[in-house]
C-alpha cells in the first residue's frame, strides 16, 4: 500500500460494534478479566491499550518495522532504549545530536557506566576507528540538528553488521514519509512523535520501531517495566496527525525550498544549511537514501545583533522551541536546544551566536517570507 494511504488507513481497528471511522479513545487504566486465568488480551494500560496499539500498528507499517512502541515523549523513548545497555558498554554517536539526547548520554547514561565517542558520522569511514571490544551500538541522527549533516545509513549499517553492533537511527527530521532507516539496515528507529508525526504542536510523543522480533521482545519488556507509555488521548492525537503527514510533509518541504533559496539571496544571511540545496555537501547521499529533504533550515546571519533583532521582530514565525508542526517556529540553538553544551565544544561545532534554526510550517510562503523580510530589515 502506498505510504499516503497507510497514513490514513494504517490502523487495523474497525470498531466492529459501532462502525466508528475514527479509532475510539479507550480512556481506561484497566480491563475486566472474563474468568479466572483468562484475559481479553488487555490487562493494564501501561502494557496494552487499544488506542495506543492502533497508533503503534500504524507506525510499524510506516517504518517497515515488526513493532513500534509509543512513549510519552521522544526522550522517554531514547531513555528506554538505553536500558538495552549495561555498565561498561560503549556507544558511538553522531557529534551533532539533539541537545536533549546529548544531555541524556553525557549525564545519565555515563553515570550508569556507559561511555560514548561522539563522531562526525557523515564521514562513515571514520567510524570504524572508534570501535572497541566493548562497543555495542552506533546511534545516529540524520539529518542532524541543527547543522543538517547527513549520514549514509546503508554505509554505516554495513560497518555495524561487520562488527555485530546495533544501528539506531533518530528519524525525527525526515519521518517515514521521506526516509525509512530500517530498509537501509537500521535495527531501531527513534522518533520524537512530538514533531512532524503529531504535527500540530499540541502534544508530546516518542517512538521506538524495531527491525526484528528479538529486539522488540527486549524493548517490550523494558517498556512495560519502566512505564513511560503514551496516554490514550495523546495516542489518538498523534494518529489524527499522521493522517495528514503526507500532505504536510510535501507542502512544508515546498515552502522550505522556496525559503532556503530566498535566504541564500539575502544580504544579511551568511550561510544556509538545508539538505535540499544542491550546494549542500551531503546532497548526493540524501538523494540516494531519502525521498525528500524535509523542512528544517538553519542559517547564519551577519552578526549576533542581527540574530537577536530577528528573534525580537518576528510576528508570524514564532520564537519557540520544537519543530515539525503546522506553525513556523524559529529557535536560537545557542540559548535553547544546545544551551547545556559547553561553549567551546558548541562553537567548535559551528553553533554560535549567529546561528538560527527554522522549522518551516504550513502558512503561505509569501507570508513567511514577508515576516522574515521585515525582521531582517
Ligand atoms: C525533539 C527531539 C527529540 C526529543 O523528543 P521530545 O518529544 O521532545 O522528548 C529527540 N530527537 C530529535 C531529533 C528531536 O528533534
UniProtKB/TrEMBL annotation:
Keywords: Pyridoxal phosphate
Pfam families, A to Z: Cys_Met_Meta_PP
Any one GO BP annotation for this protein: methionine biosynthetic process
SUPFAM superfamilies, sorted: PLP-dependent transferases (SSF53383)
Residues annotated with N6-(pyridoxal phosphate)lysine modification: 195
Listed InterPro entries: Cys/Met-Metab_PyrdxlP-dep_enz, Cys_met_metab_PP, PyrdxlP-dep_Trfase, PyrdxlP-dep_Trfase_major, PyrdxlP-dep_Trfase_small
Listed cofactors: pyridoxal 5'-phosphate
Cross-referenced Gene3D superfamilies: Aspartate Aminotransferase, domain 1 (3.90.1150.10), Type I PLP-dependent aspartate aminotransferase-like (Major domain) (3.40.640.10)
GO molecular-function term, one example from the UniProt record: pyridoxal phosphate binding
GO cellular component assignments: cytoplasm
PROSITE patterns: CYS_MET_METAB_PP
Coiled-coil segments: none
Family (UniProt): Belongs to the trans-sulfuration enzymes family.
Name of protein: Cystathionine gamma-synthase
